[in-house]
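TL;DR need structure tokens for one chain.
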Amino acid sequence: MSQAEEETQTKNTVAHKKKFTFQDFKRGLRKGKYVYLMFLPVFLYYLIFCYLPMYGIVIAFQDFRPGMDFFENAEWVGFKHFRSFFSSPIAFKVIKNTIVLNLWELAFGFPAPIILALLLNEIRCSWFKKTVQTVSYLPHFVAMVVIIGIVKDIVSSEGLINTIRAYFYEMAGGDPSSFKPIVYLNEAKYFRPIYVLSGIWQGIGWGSILYLSNLASIDPGLYEAAEIDGAGRFRKMISITLPGIAPTITIMLIFAVGGLMSSGFEKLILLYQPLTYGVADTIGTYMYRTGLEEAKYSLSTAVSLFSTVINFLLLVFVNKFAAKVSETSLW
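>> reply
TL;DR here they are.
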């Protein structure tokens, strides 16, 4: 290494070790003021609705009543509500249902956007590709209440599925008067497939956007080189496309496993019925009933804190495992 290069490296090292001052902060703030202004609404949203309310978790260790101060004159009871939840006969059921339902979503819902993105990436007809993308995105922008209303109509006794069943029943020579429609939402064995499939339908298009943008960043020269070597579409997908989006898949999988103890209680409340409580009652719906319907705020907060801690531990564990296996992780 020449003397000039050594001096340049020394200057860079000194500059790197220079302490960050308030003047540097002001200079950076002034330089990127419009970017920070755009970020401000997002920052305020998370600050007001996600971080400030976190101090309310203290009521999990209190006998909280509306109007009571969180700290002054609070009735601290320790782990009473945690013991109450785990000693109740419903605890094991809601934990099991939450895990099973999320495993179903992980097994079938997680790969769906990836598969759609891979298929769309292979389409060469531009207008057809754009049409499929637009149609698949639309359900994401429809309100959950409307989505559940559509699902209920499809699986009702006079809905689309039973109409198709009746048609094939008659085609097979069956007596139309003896046909018995199935009310799918009243039978526990159909609840999980309906829940997962409706979630895939609503989110598959929106979820594929991230993977499609990632696919667009793959060097086209790799495909050209593979084609010269005689690789077909499937071989290029396996050897180039999938490895190209593997880091993104890993990150999204970490997030998915990190939410294994969570479930969208809004959709469950709209979809489940007393006949399906055995498989549909999860931690989310249990917290809704105990917290809002029965006004047991401390018990509901204790259950929420328990699921949050488990999710955090899962996130840390899966992140470390991913870092060792694939060298891709959140930190």
